[in-house]
Amino acid sequence: LALRVGVTHFPAFLFSAVRQTIAGILLVGIALIWGKERLSFEKGAMRYVVPGILMISLGNGLVGWAQQYIPSGLAALICSIMPVWVVIINLSASRDDRPNWQIALGLALGCAGMVVVFRENVADLANWDYVFGIVLTFVATLSWALGSIYAKQKPGNSGLLANAGLQLFFGGLGLFGFSWAFDDFNKWHGLVDEGVWALAYLVIFGSIGAFAAFSYALSKLPVGLVSIYAYINPLVAVFLGWLILSEKFNPAVLVALVLTVGGVFVVNKGYRAMRYP
């Protein structure tokens, strides 16, 4: 929701670039000063650049671009398929944290919850801008899944917060390149209070807080389990989009809630079975 507000008042890629670069610098500073961590490029800068580009430049940046064309709730719902990409990629690669059938079933239930709400927007598919926004969001989810798996398999050897901060920073730099290539600055009329507040909120909570928590979970848990956060976000986004931006809200969301929570429960049960057979 805050991202939708932000890209309404800023060029989309510029908004994400400023947000992620500032968040990356602040998080690295926190890691060095309060966390007593260190920066290390012993394993190469690509350990930070690749996940930064995949998750931040493409994963986050494309979602911001897409929200010029589709509602924030729908974007979040499409993002909930990200765990499905993780399952498909893991099954193809045969990694050690390969999901069992219970995890796969839970992910399927979560996707079913997304479909229940998504079907309400079928009539809008006649609008090509709308379709473009949907395609961008699907590509973003795949990119985020790939970045998550890469970060899990090839972590940087700085501290946890420093790793996350460097990924945000390099991802933000990539977004400046996208901004130069794709943003239309002729439509930007300068800073607006709502846009600045959205930027500040996302820097603190959406990037520093949420991405640091995601990176911590990724370092401790299988990617398939970490990715289930994507099922809760859509329901919150749909509700807030209805409350604040007058986006669609109907009883189908309640059905989606049951399917989503059920999916999370089954995934957790599958993970426990995998860890403690």
Indicate the topology.
Layout: H1 2-9, H2 12-33, H3 46-66, H4 72-79, H5 82-93, H6 101-118, H7 128-153, H8 160-182, H9 193-220, H10 223-226, H11 229-245, H12 252-275
How would you concisely characterize the structure shown here?
The chain is an all-alpha fold and 277 residues long. It has helices at 2-9, 12-33, 46-66, 72-79, 82-93, 101-118, 128-153, 160-182, 193-220, 223-226, 229-245, 252-275.
Report on the structure:
This protein is an all-alpha fold and 277 residues long. The protein has one domain (2-275). It is built from 12 helices and no strands. Helix 3 runs antiparallel to helix 7, helix 4 (72-79) runs antiparallel to helix 11 and helix 11 packs antiparallel against helix 12. The longest helix has 28 residues, at 193-220. The radius of gyration is 18 Å and the shape is globular. The mean pLDDT is 79.
Number of domains: 1
Helix content: over 70%
Structural class determined from secondary elements: mainly alpha
Distance linking N and C termini: 40 Å
Give structural attributes.
mainly alpha
